[in-house]
Model the fold of this input.
Amino acid sequence: MSHHDFVVVVGCGRLGALIANRLSGDGSSVVVVDVSEEAFSALAPDFSGFKVTGDAAELGVLRRAHVEKAEVLMAVTGDDNVNLFVSQAALKTFGVSRPIARVGDVRRQEFYTHHGIEAFSPTAIVGEQLLTRIGEGSPS
Ligand code: AMP
Done:
């Protein structure tokens, strides 16, 4: 994984915690935001980043996370609307060059791209990987 100076990860569920732990381990500065403080228990004991508790759909919470200093923001809550709002705010209000959003609904991916947001669907990625695996005839 390439090094990024400062990354904000919004949503500390399984996916967000995995990303935040890896980035922190690789030496990036990370701020992780979650509405639930309990979510931070998924972070590694040696996680070196900052944790911000609050609803990321509030601009004040994003300000507390210093989103304006981020080069990359990943919005990976389970809520498409929150991820869209956060990514748009990152791009338009805070000048983040690479907002990346998790989407549940694959059909919305093109809409995000059109608005300058990199979108990915975990379902689509896993689906593709499984199909590839079948195609490659992996051992049963
Ligand atoms: P999951 O949907 O299990 O992958 O987890 C998503 C994470 O995002 C959970 O830890 C939620 O608490 C968090 N989350 C959901 N909505 C928000 C929000 N509006 N602001 C910040 N974190 C959120």
